[in-house]
Design a protein that fits this description.
Helix 5 (about 170-185) crosses helix 6. The chain contains eleven helices and six strands. Helix 3 (about 80-100) links the parallel strand 3 and strand 4 (about 115-120). Helix content is about 45%, strand content about 10%. The protein has a six-stranded mixed β-sheet. The model is unreliable at about 1-10 and about 50-55 (pLDDT under 50). The protein has one domain (about 10-280). By secondary structure, the chain is an alpha/beta fold.
Length: about 280
């Protein structure tokens, strides 16, 4: 049964790859990304951040396996600020690990930490290469010498990209097909009808077929919320740009679709907006 987190609206990517009951698909995704061949899904320890622990912050998927801390995010619009967001997520996860394992980071012994691996799966409509690297240092002045950098691997998972990766992970290939079909049908019918038609037409031999059809109403709500929020806030951002409100436009670009702030920003008070500007480092510049 689908037990959606009540603190924030679930997303299809997390629904498929971020749950205990689907860890075999998580492992398949990990193996495809890392070029590995692990077979025991029970080695995966899912530790995704959710709103219950950190109000206003959650990531799509994070898990531990073979000494690595993997953070996987899905984005249906290009976001060059993912290194900053991944830095925030990683810091929260390390803090959580330190507390759970009673690790003393004030002591003289060097702590052994899982190696962070940061990946964004991109399936937006703007054409991007199969792979590219996003760097936190790009947010600093060109002549700066920062003491910290973050690298994020961005992989294009649209149906006509990253063929080897999609072939290596069958559930990811099927997810890509679903998103591609919704986008195709949405060009000729409403989003609601496009989602319904896509779910009805999922090939019966798809691994994700039974799951999505059994939870059609919930899956449809996930997709409608995500797509509608992105479209509405895209319009809000463009309108803000035209009015010269660059701070609001920049804030929207930094928010995660489906997040608490993503929903709140449409009706946010001046005080709430100022709070979000500070939280996400949005300045007058």
């Amino acid at each position: 049964m689908c037990n959606a987190n009540k603190e924030y609206k679930d997303r299809l990517f997390h629904f498929l790859f971020g749950r205990e009951e689907h860890k075999d698909w998580t492992l398949s995704l990990y193996n495809a990304v890392r070029g590995s061949d692990y077979i025991n899904a029970e080695e995966i320890r899912i530790n995704t951040i959710d709103d219950v622990l950190y109000l206003g912050m959650h990531n799509d998927i994070s898990f531990l396996i073979v000494g690595e801390l993997n953070l996987f995010e899905q984005q249906s619009s290009f976001n060059p600020n993912m290194p900053l967001r991944m830095l925030q997520y990683t810091a929260k996860l390390y803090s959580k690990l330190v507390k759970q394992n009673h690790m003393n980071y004030y002591g003289s012994r060097l702590l052994e930490l899982p190696v962070p691996k940061l990946v964004v799966f991109y399936n937006g409509s703007t054409d991007k290469p199969d792979e590219m690297t996003l760097n936190l240092r790009d947010s600093f002045p060109a002549d700066a010498d920062p003491d910290i950098d973050v690298r994020v691997r961005m992989i294009n998972i649209n149906p006509d990209h990253s063929a080897a990766l999609l072939e290596a992970c069958r559930p990811l290939r099927e997810y890509s097909w679903v998103i591609g079909k919704i986008r195709e049908y949405n060009s000729e019918m409403s989003l609601v009808d496009a989602i319904s038609k896509t779910i009805d037409e999922i090939p019966e031999d798809f691994l994700i077929c039974d799951l999505l059809k059994a939870h059609k109403a919930e899956v449809s709500e996930m997709l409608e919320t995500e797509y509608n929020q992105e479209e509405v806030l895209k319009i809000v951002a463009e309108d803000a740009e035209r009015r010269g409100e660059k701070k609001l436009s920049e804030l929207i670009k930094k928010l995660t679709p489906g997040s608490k702030e993503y929903e709140e920003v449409l009706n946010a008070s001046h005080e709430k907006l100022e709070e979000l500007y500070r939280k996400y480092g949005v300045s007058e510049d």
